[in-house]
# Entry
Amino acid sequence: MVPLWMFLLVAAALFCIGTFAVLSRRNAIAILMGVELMLNAVNINLVAFWRYGTPETMMGQAFTAFVMVVAAAEAAVGLAIIIAVYRSRKSVVVEEVDLMRG
Amino acid sequence: MVELNAHTVVFAIFSIITLGGAVGVVWNRNLVSSSYWLIFSLFGVAGLFVLLSAPFLAAVQVLVYIGAVGILITFSVMLTRGMTQIKDVFNRQSAASGVVAVLLFVVLLVGVVLPVWGPSGALSSAPASDVVATTAELGVALVDGSQYVLPFELVSLLLTAALLGAIVIARDQDK
Amino acid sequence: MDVCSINNIARCLVNSGFDPALAQFITILLGVVVVASFPLVVVIFLIWVERKFAARIQDRIGPNRVGPYGLLQTVADAIKLIAKEDITPAGADRLVYNAAPIMAVMSVLLIWAVIPFSPIHVGVDLEIGALYFVAVASIATLAIMLAGWSSNNKYALLGAFRVVAQLVSYEVPLVFALLVPILFASSMSMQDIVHAQSGMWFFFMAPVAGLIFFISSQAETGRAPFDLLEAESEIVAGFNIEYSGMKFGLFFAGEFMHVLTNGVLMAVLFFGGWLGPLVEQAPIILGPLYLFAKSTFWYLLSLLIRNTVPRVRIDQLMDFNWKFLVPLSIVNFVVIAVLLRLCEALGIAPAAANANDFVANIPQTLVLLLGNAAIAAYVLNRLRRAGREQRLAEAGRTLAAVGEKAAVAH
# Structure
């Protein structure tokens, strides 16, 4: 099989691309997409460490399943908030949503 | 070094799909295209799961991300902008973000992958064991009282709460 | 040395001097080609069957010019489609526009990888077969979304919006119905599900789940009465309006293949797949024969529904799913799970040793059938009542008023 560090490398690269998306995009949905990429990078790491470390236990797969559920919940609520914000402010650019600014 | 066989080639293909898709998400100005690239990238992740002998997670990945989250994101993009111009620009800190992302990558590379700070377990080239837990065992573990039944129930509660919350938040108040 | 046949290609190749790895690769490649091209070839015939069937229902003759009984009509149509000019609309997203029809066909073809044709012939017997089917089928939603968006046409986009709402909604009862055979077989592998039915077909243990599965897969195909995605009279032709030539042909073929695939899935999940008398003696001939005989029944039923039931409105479609099918499928699943446990506790369930025995399965089947009958009776009663109330409301009266009138008359 491919050595473990190659999986970690791909996951690290994916995480950093996600980070860049979160930090640099203005549209809230694009930021959410970046978060999804980061969560998936974490999942790759979890499954890779499980496969190379303790494949006879269930830890890695169970954790990944939980992360997926949380990611799905995050996407649903996040997008609902974005749509609600869009309805009241007619914008999804995060810098323009500043009602709470002092 | 890494020997070239079918496994390595498939790994390379799925890695390129994953990372190429991710770059497509960041680089595309058109948000709809971005969301399609996101689905493409997440499909690559499903392929990596298959390589890591986790077929259940791969199928769930396709089902949840491609069938649900991807479609949801595409839908929201279309709902929150005019149909004709769905364009987006980077913010002022994009150059700084690029530097941060690259630095983070270097730190991860040095800290985890290359054994600079002491020997690293990440260099192990072969899995610890070829005995892989099956999907049936995962199913049992999720509902076993001594293993993951509490997190499992909590997560289902979270999912229900998120479902209700999403409907309440996104509902049009005027109607 | 044994005779070369479909069952030992790999060994034959090695014997005739091939490298073992290469022989294995060739065998797998052949398997993939056979499994993937089989539905594509069958669909040419199926289009003819469907057109003839529809014609007879509508008191027409149907295709009868090309070849005997018009059998070659589809071939002529395919040649016409290939020869047609391939138009890409201005402003279309070219890459996505071209990828969408391929994905639509792919999502159906991939399902065939886990269909068991006989005890030994199955593309790949995945441990997660049933889940794989659901995952792969969800790609179809994406394909239609891509087609609708990339066409740069408002009717196409409207059609795509409808599709997503419909397909995502109907996936819920589909999965809940699918859980029932998985529960009976305690496995997600398609081959295990078929083997578990050697004592009793699952349809007799859970007819309600079988019908829910059939109805929701009919909706997943997007055919009448659920053909809102291409309602010709409302949104011209929906998501595929801009497609021409063979790209349109691919969507078309994908839809026809999906109907047959639904029939095959019904046969595998609820009607014992390749099981039948004497199948152990001649698995290669009888297995596929039984499978397709059972599939054909559901296929023809699907055609009958398509040609006789009018299209529903979008709000009726959603109401039918969320207020009827989803609650029903959840209740059905819970009732069956409880009854199964009850049978086990009371010792009615067949022991593992004689699980394949028809007689040993009868008591448990009766209990489950009774549970199903109770659900069906309650649901039908409620439906009757609701329908009556609605008819009366349209006539401007209430049920109570009718009751009083009846009392006065007495």
Notes: Chain A has one domain: 4-96. The domain at 4-96 of chain A is CATH 1.10.287.3510 (Helix Hairpins). The first helix of chain A runs from residue 4 to 24. Residues 3 and 52 of chain A are 9 Å apart (CA to CA).
